[in-house]
Amino acid sequence: MALEPSLRTAILAAVPRLRAFAVSLSGNIDRADDLVQETLVRALANIDSFKPGTNLSAWLFTILRNHFRSEYRKRRREVEDVDGRYTGQLRTQPEQIGQIEMAEFREALVKLPADQREALVLVGASGFSYEEAAVICGCAVGTIKSRLNRARTRLAALMQVEDATDFGPDAATKAILDEDKTGA
């Protein structure tokens, strides 16, 4: 699509003021030049939405401001990591371990007696207090505490869990992760 010469002249005439506005927003000349360039690209791509007879400068300034704000919001969520130190510290556990542990947990949970499973789910998973769980189950608070203790003990035995370190990566994976931390 060919741009009308008077519209082209008006857009080019607005560039110095757009640049000054971009500098005032970003505080950086190089960033301001990028903002102006992106504004012009967007304006030309959407020139059909400009209504002749309206204020072209206002339209261009609005595009620039909106683009700057979008970029600002995006950058607020990003972490600058020029030298890669932050990225080097990030570690993600393999997902398959968690999925396997969850499957094992479900299998063990099904093996619990119904009253113990109910107490465990109400207090442990749903966050009810002992008193609230007792009301729901229609029994004494001591009964809920007893069922919960037996459920936890039985669940740990079924899953062969002795302490909290039994969850997460296996010994080989832990060794690899620890080796990465030491820089070896």
Report what the structure shows:
The protein is mainly alpha-helical. The protein has 2 domains: 5-77, Rna Polymerase Sigma Factor, Chain: A (Orthogonal Bundle), CATH 1.10.1740.10; 95-171, Winged helix-like DNA-binding domain superfamily/Winged helix DNA-binding domain (Arc Repressor Mutant, subunit A). Helices cover 72% and strands 0% of the residues. The chain is built from 9 helices and no strands. Helix 1 (5-26) packs parallel to helix 3 (56-76), helix 2 (29-45) packs across helix 3 (56-76) and helix 7 (130-137) packs across helix 8. It is elongated. The mean pLDDT is 83.
* Overall pLDDT confidence: 83
**Proportion of strand residues:** under 5%
Number of domains: 2
Count of individual beta strands: 0
CATH superfamily of the largest domain, by name, is Winged helix-like DNA-binding domain superfamily/Winged helix DNA-binding domain
Radius of gyration: 31 Å
**Through-space gap between termini:** 59 Å
Helix count, per DSSP? 9
Assign the CATH topology of the largest domain.
Arc Repressor Mutant, subunit A
Q: Secondary-structure element sequence? A: HHHHHHHHH
The chain-level structural class is mainly alpha
How would you sum up the global shape? elongated
